[in-house]
Structure formats: C-alpha cells, structure tokens
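Exercise 3.2. Students should predict the tertiary structure of the chain below and write it as structure tokens, then compare their answer with the key that follows.

Predict this chain's 3D structure.
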Amino acid sequence: MPHKGMTIFTKKLMAKATLTMDELLAQNDESVKQLTAGETVSGTVLSVKKHEVLIDLGAQGVGFVPRREVGFSHSINEGDEVSASVVDTELDNGLSLLSLRKAAKDRGWEEISAKLDAGEVINVSPYDANRGGLLAEYEGVRGFLPVSQLSAEHYPRVGSSDKDEILQRLNALVGQSIQVRILDSDRKANKLIFSEKEAVKDGLAERFEKLAIGDTVKGVVTGVVDFGVFVNVEGIEGLVHISEISWERVSSPGDYVKVGDTIEAKIISIDKDRLSLSMKQLKKDPWLDEVEKFKSGEKVEGTVTRITPFGAFVQISSSVEALVHVSELSDGGDADPEKVFTLNERKEFVVLEIDKDNRKISLTLAKK
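Answer key:
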C-alpha cells in the first residue's frame, strides 16, 4: 500500500507500472515519442505549489515548472490543461524541465504577427511606466508604448523640463485598459512597439469630418504650457495659443485654466491632426467698446508696458494698448526708446491715429 506521504510524481510512476505490456504497446506511437528541447507539449496540471508546478504529460512522464517559468500574469490551477515548452528533457530526478512562460511567449509572437498583418486594434494594460512611455504585455510578450504614440487624451502635455510630472501622468495610466495597434514587432530582437494614436485614428477621421472652422466645441484641458493650453476635444487634440486665451495681455496661461478644466472654445483652424482654438473669440472684444472713448488729437495718459527698438507700447485703458513709434521721439527718428521711456512710468500722450479694423492706435508724446 502506498505510503501516506508519497509524492504525486511517485504515485504517477507507480500507476504507470500497473499498465500491462499490451496496454503500453497499444498506446499511439506519437504519444510515447521522446521529448525534444524546444518543442511545445500539452499536459494537465497535477499540483501547484509556491515554488513549482507539476504537469502530467501522459506517456511522456511528468514535467516540472519552476515558479519563475509560470509567468507573472499566468494563473493556473490543478486540473487545468496547459501548453509548455520543453527546456530540458530529463533532470536528475527524472522529471522534464518545462516553461509555461516561454510557450505562452511563442504563441504570443504568432498572435502578434497575425494582429500586425491584420492591423487589428487590441487592448493592453500597462504594468509599469518610465519617462519614455509605458510597459505593457500582450499574450506573454512584453512591449513598449512610447509617449509619442499616446493619444491626445493620454499624452502628458507639460513643460519640457518637468520630467517628474510627465512620469506622474504616465503612472496614472498603469493598470488601465488602453486600445492600441501594434506599430512594430521583431521577434529576433525581442522588440514589440504599441501605438494608441494608430488605434484611434480611424475614429478621429470621422470626427474631423464633422467639424468646421467657426464651430464652438467643449474640451478638457490636458496641458498648460508657456505658449498656450492643450485641450482634448473628444479624442482630438486642440491648442489654444496664448494669444487666443483672453483679449487682455496674458503673461501665464496657468492664470486662466488648469489641467482637468472643461472649457469652451471656437475652432479657428483645422490642421492635419490638430485643432487651433480660441477662447477669447467666444467673448466680445472689449477693445471695440473702449476705443470709442478716444479721438484723434486728444490728450491721454498711459502706462509704458513694453519698450522695443521701434518704439514703446502704452496702456491707455484696461483693454487698449497703443504704440509710440520711434519716429515720434525726435525729428531725425534716431532716438533710443530706452533712454526716453522707463518701464511702468506714466506719461501724457496725444492720439495721432485710430485704426479700428486693425486694432491699432498711434500716439506721440504730449508737448510740455
């Protein structure tokens, strides 16, 4: 009678010993062929322990799978039918060394090749991130989703110097299901590249067709940078340039919006894969009302806001800025504006010309 502590492997060997010679000879030749390193075999899980898994290979014996060769995403239970790759045909204890991870990876490369050829959209869940992008596994094969291949919804639009925020944004995507297409694969080089942009481009083309210059759209702010605001408009990337945020002078876009805000904007241009948007054009230009207060020839007071080689800009009301051209500073027109003006000083000027169509007002210094 078998000992109570007998291993599953020993029990299996004893069970095989009870087979008659006729029964052994009756088995199909294919089932009793010798194992070959590198081949893929099928079997039934006999036991699952902390550091090992044993697999019944029928007439070909019992296979031993170290835990590391199960694969971190592979969940198995006793009785499961599995495929494994033969690493070593016979260990010292008579078992065959197998790898579920390698077998899954071999099948995965075949699946990857088919998906790449068909251009199919697949789902991956990133398991880690670095500043260059996201690491994801598909069918046992580890691949990479570069930042440059993320869609407008997920692209981390931050200042180029803010590397920590980029990584923080990417880490927020770990564990999420993301639709991608396979951009490139090379089994020999163990390279697999995913692209979210390629996966959504078909749907984006349809959305672009429904949009027109002048339309008002809603979007979520995905990035605030020095030169403007990036907006996700139903998967399409839009940019509100700093000059289109407000009718007043904008020093920092972050003073007006923050990441996550929902804004309305007007489409002012449609490029190949991006919208140019304007927030200010949805509001009446206050300049048009305030300019009515001024007339040519009258004196006004203003604050010098900018000094340039060709003159100085002067704020004469909350929304109206005028220019004193360098030619107005001396008879020869060779005066240096930086010697005539001081930044933020207030002076008295005379309105020379008002050009409402081009939103320009020309000034000259008032004579004392």
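Discussion points: The radius of gyration is 36 Å. The chain has four domains: 8-103, 119-200, 211-282, 290-365.
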